[in-house]
Design brief:
2 copies of one chain form a homodimer. With about 120 residues, chain A is mainly β. Chain A has one domain (about 5-110): Jelly Rolls (Sandwich), CATH 2.60.120. Chain A is built from 1 helix and 10 strands. In chain A, the strands form 2 sheets. Chain A has a 6-stranded antiparallel sheet with strand order 2-3-4-10-5-8, with no helix packed on it. In chain A, strands 7-6-9 form a 3-stranded antiparallel sheet, with no helix packed on it. Chains A and B meet through strand 1, strand 8 and strand 10 of A and strand 1, strand 8 and strand 10 of B.
Chain lengths: ~120, ~120
């Protein structure tokens, strides 16, 4: 069992400017099956429009963002919103406010590069 | 893709008095691999001391609780604390305040009875 807070997790490479990442619960905590990451996207920042073969389960923690969906449409989200991104769905998360847009993003271990040691830094 | 809020999810059977449960992201949303549940434990309530072969990834959302660990020790937690419970670790979550103790609890699909149609209601 491991009990910790977000800032017990050191910064991790996100691979993208303006996107800070922390692995809050992951392999370093013994969690080898599911990984919980915390992302903070700075003003003007976004994650790339991309897709991959694993899902995202997201809970928005702070700020205001837009989620780009597979049909190209955008939906605004804020704290308390949950987003499920299915495997292979094109998506992007973008900050649309003047302060950080923050969310937790849960993936199976195969979706977290530091857990698998392959692929680009941000998935 | 699915975007929703906690209270878009109807109450689900937790199997225990004083423990309310909602499946916020799960099979009904297309999430067949990982399930995100929201628990609200009323004053005086607790989940049973138990163990199972899948992990829990927990984030405390509100209130004050105590997490019972495998060695019998208790650790107090509150909003912003994260807990990883490894497979087969004995654990319990207990409300220690006069208002609801609330947390999200993420499991692989095999840990959510409504996703697997087996086992007791609360796992």
């Amino acid at each position: 069992m491991k009990i910790k807070q977000r800032d017990d997790a050191p910064p991790a490479a996100s691979g993208y400017a303006g996107v800070a990442k922390q692995i809050v619960l992951g392999p370093a905590d013994g969690s080898n099956e599911i990984v919980l990451r915390y992302f903070s996207v700075a003003q003007g920042g976004a994650t790339p429009r991309h897709s991959h073969d694993f899902p995202h389960l997201v809970k928005v923690e702070a700020g205001r963002g837009a989620v780009l969906g597979p049909d190209g449409g955008e939906t605004q989200v804020s704290a308390g919103d949950y987003v499920y991104v299915a495997p292979n769905e094109t998506h992007s998360f973008k900050n649309i406010a003047a302060y950080p847009f923050e969310f937790i993003c849960i993936v199976p271990a195969r979706g977290e590069p530091s857990a698998t040691d392959w692929g680009p830094a941000l998935r």
